[in-house]
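Lecture notes, unit on protein representations.

Consider one protein chain, 308 amino acids long.
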Amino acid sequence: MDQGNNSRVTEFVLHSLSGLRELQLFYFAFFTLFYSSIVLGKLLIVLTVLSESALHTPMYFLLSNISFIDMCLSTFATPRMIVDFLKENRTISFEGCMAQIFFQHVCAGGEMMLLVAMAYDRYVAICRPLHYAAIMNVHKCTGLVVGSWLVGVLHSVSQLIFTVNLPFCGPNQVDSFFCDLPLVIKLACTYTYVFERLMHLDSGLLAISSFVLLFSSYSVILITLRRRSSVGMAKARATLTAHVTVVTLFFGPCIFIYAWHFSNFLVNNILSIFYIVFTPLLNPLIYTFRNKEVISAMQKLMRRQVSS
């Protein structure tokens, strides 16, 4: 089949988590609550960091950016999933499907790089404290954030460059509640083995390189912490534990979804929901709401809003 021809499929049909009307209404209320919590929590973190001068440091600057990208990662598919619980016809246009794939990989790739940037920030703060202010200046922090977004865009474009040109002539049933790239590729009316391997190579290269950088940074930090005083080590270890927990929550589902893709609809969707709903919800609890400085700044922000 000529791959230069226009796709004959103009829309895809997304699956629901359940065919029972009662469960769909429950899921609608459940995920609406969760998504609202994610958006409000992330916006509160960003506004707190922006408004409180004591938090104008590289660590909190990166934290506010990862909160924003977390919110974007949850937004690319969750609102549509929530609306689809109230609809019988769960179709998405071809362009809308490609847009979902694009924004998912932009946010996922960008977040991987931001996690690496945060690990680098902690490495400099703990291993080279005397040079921290000089190394982690405004230009360096801005460059790390911009670079993270650029990596995400390049990663996403490299995934879509071959996907949009695949011939889709039916079937058009995506076995997920959003346009998941591995499942969409399988619907192409051509031999997709090469394209699937390219997709796994692209995503795997980014994920593995990010994981190696994270592992190297945290290993050096742990070795350094063993030589420090118990008080300083305890505080740094608490911060490091939060970072490692978030990294595990983020990379765990990615490994299963893209390196070991299950054929079971339920398992795939549970992993996807954990990846785009529960992980963004848990991240602020791990990173910020256990942080006394952030809690204090949030209380000041709320008092100012009430008094005004």
